[in-house]
Specification:
Length: about 240
């Protein structure tokens, strides 16, 4: 791993600032001053000190992203800007989004390099809830709500699992589902005679979108948020705390 990337992954500053600090002789590797940001180090065995303090590499990281529209939920794309691109200097080669949001869908997205946690959250057997705010093309009525709460035919082998619906006004609802089929929310509303014109994910399991987090911005999960995700959403209490 490059020295400047290692220090950036340790959350010691931006890549550009850390490059300046390295060139200024403020970093040592195995007690020797190194002034080349591109020098490769072994993050597992080398002793790296920044301004006299030994650095500890952070193996697993967790970010909450408020995904905007027109960004794809992918790690890389030759034509489109990705959610990983939004991380700027904090992006790492091992980060990925947990699940996908359509290009035009906004809202909560968890980005991490913890493959085991991602597998648990996305496993169909876990039935992790996903809550969405839906703006609709037509007025929403009681019959549509009843059908969604019973399960609808979206062209799969079986009906969707029952959803939870809360009516906000005549053309806005929140819809909570426990599956993750392709375009599921849009297909469910279309199946009951309506169409989604705006979609935003508010929650995944216990993790709620921070209402103060602007679109296109991100932050680290708090210790309490991560604890809830692990203990409540995956029923796993080992290995994290």
């Amino acid at each position: 791993m490059r020295l400047d990337k290692f220090l950036c992954d340790c959350q010691l500053g931006t890549r550009s600032q850390l490059k300046k600090d390295i060139k200024a002789g403020q970093v040592t590797v195995n007690d020797n001053i190194v002034q080349k940001p591109e020098q490769h180090i072994n993050e597992k065995t080398d002793k790296i000190c920044y301004k006299g303090q030994q650095c500890t590499y952070e193996k697993l990281v967790y970010y909450m992203l408020h995904k905007p529209a027109d960004v794809v939920s992918a790690t890389e794309d030759v034509r489109e800007r990705t959610v990983i691109d939004l991380l700027g200097d904090e992006r790492r080669d091992d980060l990925f989004p947990v699940g996908r949001l359509d290009k035009d869908t906004e809202g909560l997205l968890l980005i991490t390099n913890d493959g085991a946690l991602a597998h648990e959250l996305l496993s169909p057997s876990k039935h992790v809830e996903k809550e969405y705010e839906c703006h609709l093309a037509k007025p929403f009525d009681v019959e549509q709500r009843m059908r969604l709460e019973q399960g609808v035919d979206i062209g799969e082998k079986s009906l969707t699992k029952p959803a939870v619906v809360h009516i906000l006004d005549d053309k806005r609802i929140t819809l909570t589902i426990t599956e993750g089929k392709f375009h599921q929310v849009k297909r469910m509303l279309h199946a009951v005679g309506n169409d989604v014109i705006y979609l935003k994910r508010l929650r995944m399991g216990s993790l709620m979108l921070d209402s103060e987090l602007p679109k296109g911005h991100y932050r680290r999960l708090t210790e309490e948020e991560l604890r809830k995700v692990v203990t409540e959403d995956t029923n796993d209490r080992s290995g994290y705390f």
